[in-house]
Amino acid sequence: MTDSAFVVVRPGALTTVQDLGRFGHAHLGVPRSGALDQPAHRLANRLVGNAEGAATLETTLTGCAVRLRRTATVAVTGAPCPVTVDGRPAAWGAAVRVPAGALLEAGAAAHGVRSYVAFDGGVEAETVLGSRSTDVLSGLGPAPLAHDAVLRLGPPRGPAPGVDGVPHRGAARELVLPVVLGPRDDWFTTAGLRTLATGEFRVSAASNRIGLRTEGPALERAKDGELASEGMALGALQVPPDGRPVLFLADHPTTGGYPVVGVVPEPYLAAAAQAVPGTPVRFTPLGRVSWPPSARRDVPGDSTEGVAEGVADRG
To answer: Distance between CA 266 and CA 282 in Å, rounded?
Structure first.
């Protein structure tokens, strides 16, 4: 077995290999996948001198522990957590030199959900459809980390760049998500859209890499029945029969038959990935675009009143 590797000592609740994802395969039923908090993933790679697309480990809530078989520069970003090397405290959000044979541990998240562990050279898992990412929905990519698993590391690219400070936005006390209405907002009544804009929602413990589920009031439907399956985009806000919105994240299905009331722009999804169960969620409808969104038309403003006016003719 190669010495350029690490052995999993503690896999944690769910630790997966992630890069920037696999693109261009939605027509085959394969979502993008990739790191849920992409800014944190990119930062971890920059700290150790990798290209931003190198594969990292994405931990969930409880962290993980690995034993290095070669000396490596390592950085942990994303959800703040205690970092130790052979039990001794090490820096979070900084490049740390870990000697061969040492045990590196990223502990439980103090704030947020997902931490990212980058190694110089990146994690050299098998590439599937152009990506090393684990897709928990389709099962593509490497399996989630398991005790005693051995994962290879790539060759280091060179010295890690020095940094004076690491930006960290922190976990949101309230998750505020703008929603571009459509394509199926007409499946909801004026009251239902008002509920979307004013309702008190919270992050459900049933959330995962596929989607952020919410608890709270149900959105009232204007139409009965279900749609024929249609394409689902990253950030789609789908409303299942219970009326509570589900925000699709990186491992989302590529088709679905429940109506999509709107889409959350991708830059806001990293915050959603770090929102712990119970976090208040506030949706802010921005108006509507024509779908596909190539020809925008005038839309109501940001306010609840504007949304209501824009759909006043719906039952």
So the answer is: 16
Average pLDDT, the chain: 90
The mean pLDDT value for 57-75 works out to 97
29 touches 78 (CB < 8 A):
no
pLDDT digits (tens, 9 = 90+) for 259-309: 999 999 999 999 999 999 999 999 999 876 655 554 333 333 333 333 333
Task: Report how far Cα 15 is from the mean position of its chain's Cα atoms.
Answer: 13
Supply the pTM of this predicted model. 0.89
Closest Cα to residue 54, out of 161, 157, 168? 157
Rounded to whole angstroms, the Cα distance separating 199 from 170 reads 24
Q: Supply 233's token pair.
A: 């985009």
Question: Who's near 70: CB < 8 A, 6+ residues apart?
Answer: 3, 4, 5, 100, 153
Sequence letter at residue 111 = H
Model pLDDT for residues 31-54, shown as the tens digit of each residue:
999 999 999 999 999 999 999 999
192-215: b or e for each residue (b if 16 or more CB lie within 10 Å)? bbbbbbebebbbbeebbbbbbbbe
Q: How far apart are CA 200 and CA 203, in angstroms?
A: 11
Token pair 């306010």 is found at 303
- Token pair 């403003």 is at which residue? 301
Q: Are 5 and 18 in contact (CB under 8 A)?
A: no
